[in-house]
Design brief:
The chain is an alpha/beta fold. The protein has helices at 11-25, 49-55, 59-62, 77-85, 134-178, 181-211, 224-239, 260-277, 323-326, 346-356, 410-422, 433-441, 460-471, 505-516; strands at 29-38, 41-47, 93-98, 108-117, 123-132, 220-223, 244-249, 255-258, 283-293, 307-316, 360-365, 371-378, 402-406, 426-430, 449-452, 476-481, 496-500. The chain has four domains: 23-132, Beta-Lactamase (2-Layer Sandwich), CATH 3.30.450.20; 137-211, Helix Hairpins (Orthogonal Bundle); 220-378, Heat Shock Protein 90; 402-516, Rossmann fold (3-Layer(aba) Sandwich), CATH 3.40.50.2300. The chain has 14 helices and 17 strands. The strands form four sheets. It has a five-stranded antiparallel β-sheet with strand order 2-1-5-4-3, with helices on both faces. α5 (134-178) runs antiparallel to α6, α7 (224-239) packs parallel to α8 and α8 (260-277) packs antiparallel against α10.
């Protein structure tokens, strides 16, 4: 008897269970819907596991419902209905937007509608695939936000530079007027009010400079735990009455290289923000901890670089911050407070100081859940540096030396030249270094002190200083600039110093006299600015 061969199973019969399993295991969300339009969208007849996870619903809850229920808006309906009039296999309709999860969590996805035809070629169903792009979109938004902050910082730095010159003039002439006996008798109060307003404005400018990372910092290795403990009493007073401060200092090691004065201001601003967000009986907590980011854990552009960090965090259990406000939190002049309650520069200063210190800042908050600001500073291994005492106030001494002043701003140059001349110095003033060099070479006596806006090694002001030093090795150089001036390696430390704009004329006179007397003068840091 001849054996007959059995017909092999059809490919479709073998593939059907595999295709069903593959469809369920896909990482992308998949819906199968009827091709007929119904109120609210296409009727869902199947959803794979990934689609259920994206929508936050079980398959049974999706089955029979219109697909529009899983979309945050229905802006794609018009294009979809036009496409449904003539759907064809191979001709897909794509789009992107937000999806509506049942728990309200934000989810952004792309989608593609594709036609499925039966054996007769007639389109009977629509398959929709969804790809979750929430993480990618969040990263793009973070990068765009960082770029916007950088652009605003450049603008703020430029504005602050110009205001520094104006404030130097206002404050300087107030000092000149205040020193005249007739003015002290008849207008001392008025001049004093102008001077106080000028100093307040100078404080605002310093916060703008800090945001734009052009503030002069004086970093040193400090213990964050000790710094927090030392400032805890004044921080606790800021929260009284009815609100309290707690410390949770766990960082070990706890050393970072920061400017202690600027970090004190950062703490003050963050605690003041917490105070404004707290209800009576609320609490602010300052925490420190040590963490290490392993190599490979920083896959995104916005992730922390790998390394060792000391973390300083300020938390509160107050009203919290909305997602919309968080997107603008560190921008200058942005504030959620009532008009007249804040300038919007407090967090801008925090951002600038942290960035300029090589650190990173992150915010975790939601309405009703409080807020946490975490500052990550690279851990430092060096020895703790002792605090440097501020120099004693020196009496003004009339001078007789020749001083060369270089200043582009006409009003500032006139004011500084006037006060130095009034104090007995012989002053040559010029707008640019090249002009100043011509003036100096035309004088019978050598220039003994150069005051110039040294910004970076190799600039025109340093070339001028080198030329003058070659002619007179006992030259003294005082750098007057908006940021911390560079040190000149070819000039003895005692022969150079710095002063940061906007400076008080009394500071200038003391710095000039100290340098000429051979005592040296360090770069004068900006004054401590009360928190805004």
């Amino acid at each position: 008897m001849k054996k007959t061969k059995k017909n092999p199973a059809r490919p479709a019969q073998v593939a059907a269970p595999l295709l069903a399993a593959a469809l369920g295991a896909l990482g992308e969300g998949v819906l199968l819907a009827e091709a007929r339009w119904r109120p609210g969208g296409l009727k869902i007849i199947f959803a794979n596991d990934s689609m259920c996870a994206m929508a936050g619903r079980a398959a049974a809850a999706l089955r029979g419902r219109p697909h529009g229920e899983i979309h945050a808006d229905h802006g794609h309906f018009a294009a979809l209905r036009r496409w449904l009039r003539r759907p064809a296999p191979g001709l897909a309709l794509s789009g992107e937007g937000g999806l509506a999860r049942c728990d309200g969590a934000p989810l952004y996805a792309t989608w593609t509608f594709s036609a499925v035809a039966g054996a007769d070629g007639r389109v009977t169903h629509i398959v929709v695939t969804y790809r979750d792009l929430t993480a990618k979109r969040r990263m793009e938004e973070e990068v765009i936000h960082a770029q916007r902050i950088e652009a605003v910082g450049r603008l703020a730095g430029g504005v602050a530079h110009d205001f520094n010159n104006l404030l130097s003039v206002i404050n300087g002439y107030c000092e000149i007027l205040g020193s005249k006996p007739a003015v002290r008798r008849h207008a001392a109060r008025e001049v004093g009010e102008i001077h106080r307003a000028g100093r307040t404005a100078a404080g605002l400018v310093r916060q703008l400079l800090a945001f734009s990372r052009r503030q002069a910092l004086h970093p040193q290795v400090v213990s964050l735990n000790r710094l927090v403990r030392d400032n805890a009493p004044i921080l606790a007073k800021l929260l009284r009455p009815g609100k309290s401060l707690a410390l949770d200092l766990q960082a070990e090691p706890d050393r970072a290289c920061v400017d202690p004065a600027q970090l004190q201001q950062v703490l003050l601003n963050l605690v003041l923000n917490a105070r404004d967000a707290l209800a009576p009986g609320g609490e602010a907590v300052i925490r420190t901890r040590f963490c290490e980011i392993a190599l490979g854990r920083n896959r995104r552009l916005t992730d922390l670089p790998s390394g060792r960090y000391v973390v300083l965090a300020v938390s509160d259990n107050g009203v919290g911050i909305s997602e919309g406000a968080q997107a603008h939190l560190f921008e200058p002049f942005f504030t959620t407070k009532e008009p007249g309650k804040g300038t919007g520069l407090g967090l801008a200063l925090v951002y600038g100081v942290v960035q300029q210190s090589g650190g990173h800042i992150f915010v975790q908050s939601a309405p009703g859940t409080g807020a946490t600001f975490e500052l990550f500073f690279p851990a430092a291994d060096g020895p703790l540096q002792a605090e440097v005492a501020l120099p004693a106030v020196l009496p003004a001494t009339r001078g007789r030396e020749t001083v060369l002043l270089v200043e582009e701003d006409n009003v500032v140059r006139k004011m500084v030249a006037g006060i130095l001349t009034a104090d007995g110095y012989r002053v040559l003033d010029a707008v640019l270094p090249a002009e100043a060099l011509r003036f100096a070479r035309a004088q019978p006596k050598p220039v003994e002190l150069l005051i110039a806006p040294l910004q970076s090694p190799g600039d025109d002001s340093e070339k001028l200083a080198r030329a003058l030093h070659a002619a007179h090795p006992r030259l003294r150089v005082l750098a007057a600039a908006n940021a911390e001036p560079p040190r000149l390696p070819w000039l003895a430390p005692a022969a150079q110093g710095g002063i940061t704009k906007p400076f008080a004329l009394s500071e200038l006179l003391r710095a000039v006299r100290s340098l000429l007397d051979g005592e040296g003068v360090p770069a004068v840091p900006p004054h401590f600015t009360p928190p805004i």
